[in-house]
Amino acid sequence: MKKFIYGLISFSPTLALAADADLSGIQRLVIQVGNIIKSIVPLLFALAVVYFFWGLAKFIKSAGDPKAQGEGKSIMIYGIIALAVMASVYGLIGWLQSSLGVTGGGTVVLPTLPPIQ
């Protein structure tokens, strides 16, 4: 605990000087990462659906083999779990945005401190 406190104290001048820094590059980076994530999420949903249907096809194809049917069932279950988790996280983020009054787009306004005189 002492190491954490000493580290925090040693970085406090840096944090105080960061208030006057130009953060437009960081804002652009955050926006670009957000855009990348927005384009990846539908792809992940599609991959989970394809994984489920691959398990379904494997289950149907191996009608006489119980071991292969079990593998198909487990693939289908994992596909459904992946879809449920992704939909739940997506819904939770939407609910938090609406309840906290955060919009889905726009720029982020960072808090600043008044300059030291």
Number of helices: 3
Strand residue percentage: under 5%
Shape: elongated
Helix content: over 70%
How would you classify the quaternary structure? Answer: single chain
Distance between the termini: 34 Å
Q: Low-confidence parts lasting 5 or more residues at pLDDT below 50? A: none
The radius of gyration over CA amounts to 24 Å
Number of strands: 0
Structural class category: mainly alpha
Q: Can you give the mean pLDDT?
A: 81
Which series of helices and strands comes N to C? HHH
Largest sheet: none
List keywords for this structure.
single chain; about 120 residues; mainly alpha; about 75% helix; about 0% strand
Layout of secondary structure:
Elements: H1 2-17, H2 24-61, H3 66-100
Describe the protein in words.
The protein has a domain of about 70 residues. About 75% of the residues lie in helices and about 0% in strands. The longest helix has about 40 residues. The model has no long low-confidence stretch (mean pLDDT about 80).
